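User: Predict Polymerase/histidinol phosphatase N-terminal domain-containing protein's structure from this.
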Amino acid sequence: MLGLAHYSVAAQSAPELHWYRGNTHTHTVNSDGDTAPDGVVRWYRENGYQFLFVTDHEFATDVAPLNALFGAEGRFLVLPGQEITQWGEDPARSAAHVNSLFTTRVIWPVGERRCTGSGCGAHAPAAMPLAETFRANIAAVRAQNGIAQVNHPNYRWSVRPEDLDEIPDGTLLEIWNGLGSVNDLGGSDGNGDVRPSAEGYWDYLLSRGKVVWGVGSDDSHNAEGRGHAWIVVRASELTPAAIRAGIERGDFYASTGVTLTDIAASDAEFAVTIEPARSGARYTTRFIGQDGKVLAEAAGTSPRYRFTGNETYVRAAITDSNGKHAWTQPVFRDGRGQTMAPGAPAPR
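Assistant:
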């Protein structure tokens, strides 16, 4: 596969591209959310989003009536999905959740099915490695022609980086979850158990040759949980097929509040353009490579990184002076990856 740094002449002559903001992790009263689907969809429709996946636990929401009410050509789109709620009987290895995007039939996790309170799921035997549950559940997503998203890897401190060694290329990884209680930043227990940040899991996988795309999402269950993290997909139009294609080729960025207007690469350099905030925020961009090493740091709204020829991948992580973030997808320099097309106007 090709990388961003090697987009083709054909990509440059493609139809005009636009940026579309969306959330890939959303709950309603159909599982453990507190709001009916129409109320949830209305909020996202009225707060600057162009698409939304409804991903209730072990429930497949019919999005056709929601699109009939709230969908608008070129303006808003509701997409189907589910959160596959994998639990484990081992208390130290008890959660391995995966989103199934673009699927319309419920996928049951591995093990004994149980429903408690407002949520369902299944419990894998204590002796079953979490890696095996990821393998089985992601295979089930792909069997329905869906896209798999590994959610909140530090939730309950259950998942270790090596549990994800065998996830297939093209899988999404939630590098920022908006709940605020799933240990996005990782940490140590003081007794030798040190876990990387969710972003660190991403570098772990990228450094081992994987093609994995980083996602920010709300994991919203109530009004307070909405609008904290999202992705912005570059696509020719706002349709399920175009959004899917943009996600599959890694033509999107994740954000908690920083807006990018362009991401582009040539054989010589990787360039990011940041839209200045009205607050007057200042921006620092870190260009990150193999094993999570910071290759360079730049200030301002037009950071650039010149390739040295020794990189396997380079990605950009942007932080503003108010603590908001954005993350580009990696530029692959070692022959893996998929084509990302050059510039497009930002959404308005």
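Residues 1-13, 339-348 have pLDDT under 50 and may be disordered.
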